[in-house]
Amino acid sequence: MVCLMRVNLYGIPSIEFKVELSLVDPQASLDHFDIFTVSHCNGLLLCNNGEYNRIVVWNPCTGQTKWIEPRKIGSYALGSYQANKYGDNSYKILCWCDGKNNEFEIYEINSSSWRTLDVTLDCELEYDECGMSLKGKTYWFASDENEEQLGMFLVSFDYTTERFERLLLPCKSIYYKTLSLSVVGEEKLSVLLQHADTSRTEIWVTNKIDETKVVKWSKVLTVDLKPELDICGLVRFLVDEEKKFLVFGHLNLKSGVPIKQEVYIVGEENKVEKVYSGITSSMANLFDYVPSLTQIQ
Questions:
Q1: What is the extent of the structural domain holding 185?
Q2: Where do the F-box associated beta-propeller type domain residues begin and end (predicted)?
Q3: What is the pTM of this model?
Q4: Looking at the domain assignment, is residue 249 inside a domain?
């Protein structure tokens, strides 16, 4: 299920759920498609189920869908590239096959066909389900056991050249207690970093990705996520660069079974407000979604 929500940052911070959207799989007997993971690109959502045997590209704004049969089990990401001299965007799906670093496949939306990708990845992708797509690339956290001094860094996949590239994080560290990737306004990358020895959490944002090949980081917000929140590992977040507010969600593992998904809003004055708590079976995604009339070819 996908929920459109409105974040209120005035007065008492709150989240209002506006619309619930669901998918119906034409080949399934269930009345809805059980969405397990989601990736986002230019107003399109790429969703897969928990069995990883069915994926769909979906435009929630127009209702258009394209159902796809995977060739192999793996993690998926959706990205764009310019298909012609007029700058029209087309789309591809990258499949990282069953966690094998050098086995990737590409699905061409235009031709509705899979092919094996001839590429070598010289590092280890971390948290592969948490890639973020922006301006023709998808980004993941990564590490390299042969260059441990680099610590954690980012790896991007370019959907035009079909090659991987590295990008340094603003802070060098081998281990982070908490980390996450997000996109700001369809123009910038953002990272949330919390070092292992502190509850202080930093939010960094890049310059506009398409304006220069040199990516620069700026720290826009520092908050203290108290130890009692027990935030560790991955979180999902959105940041308002101007108003200096952070919205983040995580799984409360102390809640027992069933597990609870919790969402908080934190401002520059470090006041933490819990705005949502509900039972979940998987980590929810948070996207700054901009409706689009993009056609799925």
A1: 173-291
A2: 2-296
A3: 0.88
A4: yes
